[in-house]
Amino acid sequence: MNQIASSAAETDSSLKNLVPRIIPRAEHGISRKNISNGALRVLYRLHEAGYKAFLVGGAVRDLLLGEHPKDFDIATDATPEQTRALFRNCRLIGRRFRLAHVVFGREIVEVATFRGIGEAGNSDRHVVDGRIVRDNVYGSIEEDAIRRDFTVNALYYDIADFSVRDYVGGIADLQHRTMRLIGDPELRYREDPVRMLRAARLAAKLNFSLAEETEAPIAGLAGLLADVAPARLFDESLKLFLSGHGLESLRRLHNLGLLGEIFPATAKALAGPRSAEFGRLLGYTFTSTDERIRSDKPVTPAFLFAAMLWEPVRSLAERLVEDGNDPNVAWQVAVDRVVHQQAVRVAIPKRFVMAMEEIWSLQSRFEQRQKKRVLRLLAHPKFRAAYDFLAIRAHDEPELREQVEWWTNAQELDAQQLSEQLQTSPPRRVEGEPAKKRKRSRRRKRSSTDTDVVSAPDAENPGE
Predict the structure, then answer these.
(1) How far apart are alpha carbons 73 and 38 in whole angstroms?
(2) Is 458 a catalytic residue?
(3) Of 38, 60, 365, 459, which is least packed with CB atoms within 10 Å of its CB?
(4) Which of 62, 77, 149, 166 does the annotation list as catalytic?
(5) pTM for this structure?
């Protein structure tokens, strides 16, 4: 009997002694006023049709913590096909996990059938090298509870009597603000290595600590993330960094030794000679992004990734210059190499890669104060992102602060005022920087003697 099958047998035996803790409505703080209309409609319809229906997972956890969840997931004993028969606005999705999505305008309510234990080799449950690649074995609510990842995510709100059911000690862990895996942690991480990232993310979001037995195996199993599809790791990266708790997620990943498995160049730079400066750059970037998310302002993954890979690109470009390469060529080689190596771990979509490269390449154009170039840069689609990145860099690079001040003022002037200022105020030169000769040529030529590779080359032709 293999490890998975053996574990399933042991679990099946323990189910017989599994007694839920039931918290009646009067003893918990969940109110239906805080549950979305769509989720309530699904819960009531399933209940009225004779099925068991529970709000489950993060929504129950967050409601008990006094938070306001955005997503509401439902668990039921109805199969996906039976759920679809009750709702005209329902579609079935997923091959690995078959789910029903009930759509109410912009809200999607996810409905999952209780997961069963099953055994490896079952046609509906397929395991490869300890990882579950397909799992559509259905079972009881008890089985569903022990199949979930963390105890605080295995709490069920029963629409039948408005009680909360706890099968695995989730209430106690919620009170102690502890993240604890259900079952054998090593086995659960091997089943799905992404659970290690999920542990870091949820601990960061909730400001919880990891239980000792939950954290202990991570150091030895972190390498399993190399076998996870890069596209899936990109999705997980968005959850980690774009949920309003990005900075704390980054810290948790770094402390747990997981950052190097998904962003190896970033982790290496944080251990390099400029670790302090780079750490502060990331701190400013993630703090700004977290604040924008909490204020419902738009953000782009490209900005975060540009910051995370800035120091790896810059340091590599400098080494290439030291080896005798042309600065412009060195920069582009560094960009291509770092981005390519990163794509092996996390598949950043091309549209974001192009935006990252534009943010980097526009940095050197802030030095230019010729009227046409200023107006052209102000009109550039990525101007604001590049300007924001320049402002963040200026925290630790004082020589950039005059540029930030000038461009901040430029954005506040109308076209005529800006034109007048450009005619009367020549660009200030950073103290200690050699004067640059003006070149008049219809076709712009890049100087082969320029040795400044701290920022990107001119972006007249970004991506070349």
Answers:
(1) 11
(2) no
(3) 38
(4) 149
(5) 0.81
